[in-house]
């Protein structure tokens, strides 16, 4: 599947279908810090991502608290 | 996963609430959390005139959307900070949101109005960029709120923001800062009442709110915030949160309920006498306010504050 990441913006390929939890573990990402959007739809952490999916992993942490 | 309310397919799971929601019921959940915060902390009434500080990011656009949806009269304020293209793009998100929803947005550009920008102001004042930015924004928030006779200034600080600030204050035992960390800062001495209605919602929830409702927001991080200590604190807290869901909420809200009163003495000591800045007229404990000193060092010009009657509500 194609994985789109931000900050910095980049695209990577991951082979095979898998759950959101497994994908985040493989990429060493914290599920509390990201949203996963599969083919344009927000999905929960137990969702199954098909091998041909286009997945956006959106970081949700912003800085500059004042 | 199924929605806790309707048993339809869930789009988000909230481990700290042990709950999953479909899109519609998650949006309602967010509205309820904001309503609960407004009531719990007596933030404002339906009759109050509200001003929300809007950055173009997810939190400020979400809180504006929620409050408007709940029937509050709320205008927006966007401050262009002169941070390269980032400020132009973030401003476009704020303006597009206001136009789409028929809401009033005041725009203040510090380069045009004050003759400096945050990168130059930061260097000239020898302050960290986030410090110079925060001080500039607070001054302009106060000015626009008072000039516009708004009862309350609203910011989009969420649970993660507040937990990270608390974490930093506890790490360094900054009792003066701990004393004034609260979702409501009362109006005083010409400064408007300031409130944070998102303290019961975290960043992931605010981003999800925007995604579900199709609210476009600035995704890129501010280029000046790289290495910001609050980002490191948030990262540390999210590591704890992943292992122990609910930790951030317990940390912050139990501080408010069970520990903040221990710092009340420090809060009293902080109540300095304020007087008008000799240069701009803004309330300050010094002859010249910190904002005017920053603008002066950066080669700009401070604009006099047009004080109207200060909001009378003080608690």
Fold and architecture overview:
The complex is a heterodimer of chains A (66) and B (315). By secondary structure, chain A is mainly beta. Chain A has one domain (2-59): Roll (Ubiquitin-like (UB roll)). Helices cover 11% and strands 39% of the residues of chain A. Chain A is built from 1 helix and 7 strands. In chain A, the strands form 2 sheets. Chain A has a 5-stranded mixed β-sheet with strand order 2-1-7-4-5, with no helix packed on it. In chain A, strands 3-6 form a two-stranded antiparallel ribbon. In chain A, a hairpin with a 2-residue loop joins strand 4 and strand 5. Chain A is globular and about 35 Å long. The N and C termini of chain A lie far apart (39 Å). Chain B is an alpha/beta fold and 315 residues long. Chain B has a single domain, classed as Rossmann fold (3-Layer(aba) Sandwich), CATH 3.40.50. In chain B, the strands form 3 sheets. In chain B, strands 5-4-3-6-8-7 form a 6-stranded mixed β-sheet, with helices on both faces. A two-stranded antiparallel sheet of chain B has the order 1-2. Chain B has a two-stranded antiparallel sheet with strand order 9-10. In chain B, a hairpin with a 7-residue loop joins strand 7 (184-185) and strand 8. In chain B, helix 1 packs across helix 9 (203-213), helix 5 (118-125) crosses helix 6 and helix 7 packs across helix 10. Classes of the chains: A mainly beta (66), B alpha/beta (315). The A-B interface holds A 6-7, 30-35, 37, 41-47, 58-66 and B 1, 10-13, 20, 23, 57-59, 130, 133-134, 137-138, 157, 160-161, 164-165, 202-204, 206-208, 211-212, 219-222, 224-225, 228, 230-231, 234-235, 238-239, 241-242.
């Amino acid at each position: 599947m194609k994985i789109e990441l931000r900050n910095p913006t980049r695209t990577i390929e991951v082979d095979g279908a898998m759950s959101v939890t497994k994908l985040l573990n493989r990429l060493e990402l914290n599920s509390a810090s990201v949203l996963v959007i599969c083919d344009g739809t927000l999905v929960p952490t137990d969702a199954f991502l098909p091998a041909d999916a286009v997945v956006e992993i959106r970081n949700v942490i912003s800085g500059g608290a004042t | 996963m199924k929605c806790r309310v309707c048993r339809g397919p869930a789009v988000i799971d909230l481990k700290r609430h042990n709950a999953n929601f479909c899109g519609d019921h998650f949006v309602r959940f967010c509205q309820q959390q904001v309503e609960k915060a407004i009531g719990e902390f007596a933030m404002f009434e339906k009759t109050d005139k509200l001003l929300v500080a809007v950055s173009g990011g997810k939190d400020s656009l979400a809180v504006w959307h929620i409050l408007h949806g709940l029937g509050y009269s709320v205008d927006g304020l966007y401050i262009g900070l002169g941070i390269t293209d980032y400020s132009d793009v973030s401003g476009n998100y704020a303006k597009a949101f206001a136009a789409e929803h028929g809401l009033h947005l005041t725009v203040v550009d510090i380069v045009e109005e004050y003759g400096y920008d945050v990168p130059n102001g930061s260097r000239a004042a020898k302050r960290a960029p986030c410090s110079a930015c925060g001080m500039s924004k607070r001054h302009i928030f106060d000015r626009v709120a008072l000039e516009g006779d708004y009862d309350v200034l609203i910011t989009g600080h969420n649970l993660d923001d507040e937990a990270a600030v608390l974490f930093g204050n506890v790490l360094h035992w900054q009792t003066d800062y701990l004393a004034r960390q609260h979702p409501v800062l009362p109006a005083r001495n010409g400064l408007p009442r300031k409130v944070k209605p998102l303290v019961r919602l975290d960043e992931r929830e605010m981003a999800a709110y925007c995604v579900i409702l199709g609210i476009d927001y600035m995704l890129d991080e501010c280029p000046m915030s790289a290495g910001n200590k609050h980002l490191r604190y948030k990262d540390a807290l999210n590591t704890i949160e992943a292992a122990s869901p609910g930790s951030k909420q317990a940390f912050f809200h139990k501080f408010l309920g069970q520990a903040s009163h221990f710092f009340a003495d420090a809060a009293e000591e902080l109540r300095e006498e304020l007087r008008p800045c000799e240069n701009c007229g803004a309330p300050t404990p010094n002859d010249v306010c910190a904002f005017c000193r920053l603008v002066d060092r950066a080669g700009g010009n401070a604009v006099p504050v047009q004080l109207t009657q200060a909001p009378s509500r003080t608690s």
